[in-house]
């Protein structure tokens, strides 16, 4: 599989492949870093151009995952590499605990070790579920959502697409978070949050507006 990115989060995605004993054909992609090495950890090939990525898709493996954070950037990467012939794929750590009943996980999710996802959960595409995140029953999560370490999403809450839930934040039951929202680290969200804003605190309150998405997104 091609992991897009070759730095911070991409290295964490690599650990999932290690735990699955599935390191064969894993390569990375970095066309940004000046004088980037040709190998990560002196072992894993790093591709440096879209032409190389397209050839990899055609000759080795069409699947790719996104080893870079930031919800909007992840959507842009997904569009770029699908246009090259790639197929967006999920990486789910065998050390995560996933419910066995009525759980839906979309393409391109990165679920890291220690995450707990309960029954009745819907998880859109392109999301990050970081270390020790807890997602309890019947939670609905949109596309390209980033959930940072130790965040807790409680029953029946909803998280809109392109939102970022900060480390250690808690979303209380039945609370709805809009699209393109940032919930600051450590916040306790007790009431609904509209689109395009940042909230913080305990209880969380409005802090500032965020520029709306500059593209239409139906999900």
TrEMBL record:
GO biological process: diaminopimelate biosynthetic process; lysine biosynthetic process
Segments forming a coiled coil: none
Keywords recorded for this protein, A-Z: Acyltransferase, Amino-acid biosynthesis, Diaminopimelate biosynthesis, Lysine biosynthesis, Repeat, Transferase
Designated gene of the protein: epsM
Domain PglD N-terminal stretches: 2-78
EC number: 2.3.1.-
Chain sites annotated for binding substrate: 69
GO molecular function: acyltransferase activity
Active site: 137
Species this protein is from: Flavobacterium chungangense
Family: Belongs to the transferase hexapeptide repeat family.
Name of the top EC class for this enzyme: transferase
Domain of life: Bacteria
Protein name per its UniProtKB record: Acetyltransferase EpsM
Site entry: Increases basicity of active site His: 138
